[in-house]
Amino acid sequence: MATYELCCDMIDVTIDISSIYGCSDDLSCAVFDSQSSAVIHLRTDQVLFLRQVNMFLALVCIIRSENFEKQGLIDYNFQCFKGIQVKTKLDRISWDGEYVEYMFGMNFWIWKGY
């Protein structure tokens, strides 16, 4: 449960900081788009990594620090996940913090916001 709360807090903090510093006066711009990401290094030698999949879906990964150095592999895994999301149309399914552990041994939390 602590991992779930940590991932939720990361999403909240990222959205809050993006809202404050992301856009100036233009209300139509997206504060967190598909090219944005957030990284938090933990004392436990792990990294929280957040990327937006689409407007309503964000992916939070908990990665060991030594594996976080393989940024190309992380980007590849993310693109695979986006491809799966498009093929299976996850945007029509309500994922409410479901834990998934199947993609290349990495742990994923899927969060669907509304």
List the helices and strands and how they pair.
Elements: H1 2-21, E1 37-41, E2 46-54, E3 57-64, H2 65-68, H3 71-88, E4 96-103, E5 106-112
Antiparallel strand pairs: 1-2, 2-3, 3-5, 4-5
Describe the 3D structure.
This protein is α+β, with helices and mostly antiparallel strands and 114 residues long. The chain has one domain: 2-Layer Sandwich (Beta-Lactamase), CATH 3.30.450.190. It contains three helices and five strands, in the order αβββααββ. The chain has helices spanning 2-21, 65-68, 71-88; strands at 37-41, 46-54, 57-64, 96-103, 106-112. The chain has a five-stranded antiparallel β-sheet with strand order 1-2-3-5-4, with helices on both faces. β2 (46-54) and β3 form a beta hairpin. The two termini are 22 Å apart.
How would you summarize this macromolecular structure in one to three sentences?
This protein is of the alpha+beta class and 114 residues long. The chain is built from three helices and five strands. The chain is 37% helix and 32% strand.
CATH topology assignment: Beta-Lactamase
- Looking at the structure, what is the overall shape? globular
Number of self-contained structural domains: 1
Return the CATH class.
Answer: Alpha Beta
Mean pLDDT: 72
Distance between termini? Answer: 22 Å
